[in-house]
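Project channel, design review

CF: Before we commit to the Pseudomonas tolaasii NCPPB 2192 constructs, I'd like one complete example in the thread so the newer folks can see what an input/output pair looks like. Taking ATP-dependent endonuclease of OLD family.
RD: sounds good, go ahead.
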Amino acid sequence: MILKQMRVCGFQSFGAKPVTIDFRKLTFLIGPNGSGKTATLQALCRLFSIDPNQRRLRKSDFFVAHDEEERPDSDRTLWIEADFYFPEIADETREHPTIPCNFGHMRLDNINGVPRVRYRLDASLGLDDEIEQTLRYVSEVDEDGNPIATSPVPRDERNQIQVHYLPARRDPAEHIAYGTNALLGRMLRAVNWTEQREKISQLSADISESLGTNQSVINLGDGIAEAWGKLHKGKFFKDPSLIFVTHEIEALLRHLSVSFTPGHGEQQVDFSRLSDGQKSMLYLTLVLTSQAIGRAVLKGDDDSFEMDKLKPAVFTLIALEEPENSLSPHYLGRIVSSLKALVLDKGNSDAQAMIATHAPSMLRRVEPEQIRYLRLDDSRCTVVTKITMPPKSGEAYKFVREAVQAFPEIYFSRLVVLGEGDSEEIVLPRLLAAEGLMVDEAAVCIAPLGGRHVNHFWRLLSRLEIPYVTLLDLDVARHGGGWGRIHYVATQLNHHRPNQGYMPDDQLEKLPSWNNAKYKLLKVEKDRGLRSYITELEPFEVFFSSPMDLDFAMLRAFPTAFGIEAKHLVTPKIGQVRSVLGDSFYDEKQYTVSERRYFAAYHKLFKVGSKPKSHIEALSKLTDDDLREAMPPSLKRLVKHIIKVAKELHE
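CF: and here is what came back for ATP-dependent endonuclease of OLD family:
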């Protein structure tokens, strides 16, 4: 059993147009603040929460348009639909508890499809603020998906599915009790106490008898009896006595608690003294324990609980909200591992989990297909998007998957700069800071992705509607560089933006090859009478570190900061040229004599030495004024463009 889809309309930040959310066994909800992550989890609670209070709709649950000035004369309405599918019905090797209680409501979308059950919560808010809500099965729909035939969901059937909602700070106190709605209480009430009941009664009597032999207690009891006898003359309730321990086991269970050993300076510590994060973990522990016991009872593996009293749910949904708010990162990994073990158990199909998070660290080991990205559109309504990935069969899928797992910060950014490598990650934030933009405050992410498969990252970020800028190395004279880079980017742009092509395909085919002897790219770019292929790409958010890469551009702009003196600027040897341009280079004289004299220093700093170390040391010696005055032109244009875009973005 799996919750495959939920459709939401008119609930909190979900507007009047229905929004569909697809779920997997473990789904991560991410997005900016106020984008609808909590609303998604609460929509599940309104359907199936274990807490009756969370199932009740509030006035604030009904969507109100951001530009609404007067309340309409008609009732506000909302609806939430949930589609559960049952792939386990094809498993003939054993019985599944999820099937019998749902079989009568299953429907097929097509003859070879997987059976499903659809629940629908309808609600209206009257002009007097009175709320009416009904939960029904949907057994038939019209061509537009609107329900035609429905039937009410009985309470017992609704309780077969349970949602456990864990906000960032979850106090387990209400569930460490003997109440009927408490997790521990439900389990303890279902325990078979037959063997212990008589023993507890005898022990209680022995305790009372032992305490009653105390002379002070005897005197107190005699005094009460004497005073009562003067006031009460009836035949019944004639003889009062002091009782210290009840004979009923249920009365003892009402005093249950959870304590931990050892403590700091004491043997036992009550759960109430745990930190907020530890209390949240304790609540999750209770949920996992409850689910494990219910699973065992349904399978018949545990007969110590009475099935009729326990009434275990056949399906459990855990909705976990921003656990990073109260837990340190290493705990987050343990929580995700525990939930994976619960929901991905191949032998069971009775659990599912959703995690809403702002923590990039939680997404480093998460498959992109498990992520749902939420944002608000221009009308301030929630929009839900799945992560778009290349086909799994190609190298691009593996590369993009590893890249987004290595840099999940891109999901939480207002603007992403797709760069080549570590140098961009170090240098660009410093250049932007010199111009007054702090990348952390502006939520700008520098993602070093090696310049590969940029079209897939463009598609991914475009689907998420996260603005992006691309910075690539021009790599003149390197194999495939220069014209080759222009050709690659133009080709990818035509695939990605076919209606806004930078260059028609017929012109693209006429571009010179990377090693063309007649048309050298740098000469063409300097000739004002010819087209500037590089600057014409910049309106498409594609910039180049010219003429080689960012390392070379920074070295030439700030030689003193890199420790380069005039004596170090010498004509390079062929080995140094090969080190800088690669063994398959073509015509190093595309660079000027002055530029080639930096090859030896480049070789020493960035080929033999460490790029990050060299840049960090150099940048530490430069002031903001130094950077602004001598910033490489290609990077200066990039920085100005990033600042312009960042200022235009709304929160």
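RD: helpful, thanks. Residues 172-299 form one domain.
CF: The first strand starts at residue 2 and ends at 9.
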